[in-house]
Amino acid sequence: MRPLITTVRSLKELATGLSPDAVSASPLLFEHAGTHSDVLVNADDKLDEQRIVLMRDTNTSERHVPDNLADLRRDVISRMASFAERARAHGPIVLPRGWHQYKHNNLVAFFATSRRTVQAIRWIVEVLPGERSDVVFWTTTDSDYQPSLEEFEVAKPPMPPNWEADWKTAIDKGAERIERAQRNQPSDVEISLEPLEQSTTKGWTYQQWLETVTDDQRSFIEASTAKSIRLRGPAGSGKTLALTLKAIREVLKAREDDLDLRVLVVTHSWSLATEISDSLDSMGIGNLSEVDIFPLLEIATTISPQYVNDSSGFSLIGNDSFSGKQAQLDEIRDVLDDFIAGDWITFESGVSESLRARFTSTTADDRVALAWDLLVEFGSVIGAAAIFPGAGAEARYLNLPRASWMLPLQCRNDLQVTFHLYTKFMDSLDARSLLTSDQVLADLLSHLETHAWNRARRTQGYDLIFVDEFHLFSPLERQVLHYLSRDVSVYPRVFMALDPRQSPSAAFIGFAADATRSSSALSEDGLGDVTNFELTAVHRFTPQILGLIKHIHHEFPTLDLGQEWDINFGTVESTQDPGPPPRLITAASRMGEEDDIVRAVHELYPTGRLALAIVDSRHWWRFSDLASRIGHSGRFHVSTISGRSDVEGLGYRRRGLVVGPAEYLAGLQFGTVLVAGVPDMEVNRTPTNERTRLLSLLYLALSRAQQQVRVFVNDDDGGMADVLVRAVTNGQLVRDRGSQV
Ligand SMILES: Nc1ncnc2c1ncn2[C@@H]1O[C@H](COP(=O)(O)OP(=O)(O)OP(=O)(O)O)[C@@H](O)[C@H]1O
């Protein structure tokens, strides 16, 4: 096969488990056949990016890894990306001990994967001289072929001809594609969905909406802006819409009164920011230049001086994207493996029995589960509390209050071992010149506390701040909001829409509840007195879907939610006409399940926008593969969504079938939602934190649907989860026998 030229971002996207055939359905990736090599780039890649050249002389079937590593493609690709990141960091390359590296001049050899069974396979890689530290993956060695690096250096083949020209063409073409998408001109077949009918605002004007909203929504829209307001309601109750209408109302009022008003709408993702922006545009009130709509992280990187003029070469880890999360998870697994082979011995006797069992387990699945829990602990507990390694950091961590959703750590030693691993993890990020979004926000906070910002905020700050999906913001992110206001003499006026049940990592709920437990906590938060409004009617979905969602709600383990956060689901009603009952389709095998899904796509595609939501992202690889197969049939528009980054906002919304892990569908809606990858959540077998997370994702997936819901399960993966069995028993789900092959 011809050589492949690619980048870290592209490899990370592939390392989520994206099937090679699904590349063409990804709005993030772009393939180009050059004169002598193939090029695979990510939409965010620029011309001066570090390049990764993969020589594929011996490849016959596999496109992204050597044929003999096909079974471990995900692991292998992830390590390739991790190596390239380390190569481009300043200073000498630091690889984890477990990689067993050799070096000779610019050549490095290291194990291609962490799996012990195949460790004998090593990469021979070269880091090319120059600013960008391009990396060439020359070949792999195994027991039959083991040249020394010295020998290899002498016999090394030349670089592929024209590779730099092929690279440049690919980047130019990729940029053209994005530009086309931004102009909303799909380059392929046009589809016949009517965008306005499908949108949140149904094509109605602002006036029409004011006449339609419920009394609850109206009270919020017309409420005084003298105080901050918390708007709570279940999924689909019209929170986003009410926020949008209130923002418009305040702008129009200020115009009438001849006041200068600056309004900020903060979201968690670009896709929702784009959707709100489209809603504003479609309401027939012309240009609203007073309103800015951005994801919070975007604001952080545009006003934080460290990032505006950043020359350190550090880049932000995409930990809001699935690929970023997966890359961190792989890194934590490496850190864990190194730790267990080394320092663990000094901690072993002190930690609790249950944690010890997790560290000493030799099952690969247990190791992954532990890495996953650590990822949540590092990001949502330690990072969210802005604790970074350094003097006094461990003591602060030891004193943090623990909540039920967190990793159960029973004694001081458990916490210490966790903090030790956290420090190692942060060191490994440093070795790759990576920053987390928590670090960016913590830096932003310190900037916001300076006199310089205190002066700047008078012009750059905002009078009113609207926050959608507030439940997705970490405590750290929430603190940032206060400083974005313009007038320092009054409390910031923040209007937050939230539904704590939709917090997929389940991570922020505990903190949020802690913060609200004492009534003075909110004023300490810097918001002064906060008024509560509650929405009790859902407008998105039918009473049948609401019935199923209420059932899921009642399955949630007790979260100790502060009273102010819990929504009384008993009183919630749907304003939609009745629709078909949600269905559960049970197949005998994975293959059968996939057939069932394909059949459903054929049947439902003509009815409007469809989503296939994957509840447990560990099943993502399988469904991304299915997505590509459906896409390749040529009859359907399929796009995959696996992150919150900007480019996804471009292409997918007008497309027919959107496939993605449930958490990335937050804030969006579809005519029909097909739900798959629902794992066993049995109380006795699933820790509370895991169960909460999965139920939250299931709730999120189901609540994206307007008309129909179909849930797919198969016997290979354990059949129906108990929560679904009970829904069938209670009549909220109708069971159909799916394919029995
Ligand atoms: N009063 C209303 N009458 C009719 N339709 C409404 C009303 N309020 C909202 N809707 C519609 O209900 C749907 C859901 O609204 P919206 O997205 O604002 O809900 P949400 O509470 O933000 O949901 P989620 O939390 O799940 O993102 C939209 O299609 C919107 O147009």
Automatic annotation (TrEMBL):
Domain of life: Bacteria
SUPFAM superfamilies referenced in this protein's UniProt entry, alphabetically: P-loop containing nucleoside triphosphate hydrolases
Molecular function per GO: ATP binding; helicase activity; hydrolase activity
UniProt keyword list: ATP-binding, Helicase, Hydrolase, Nucleotide-binding
UniProt-listed Gene3D superfamilies: P-loop containing nucleotide triphosphate hydrolases
Domain called UvrD-like helicase ATP-binding: residue spans: 212-542
Positions that bind ATP: G233, P234, A235, G236, S237, G238, K239, T240
Protein name: UvrD-like helicase ATP-binding domain-containing protein
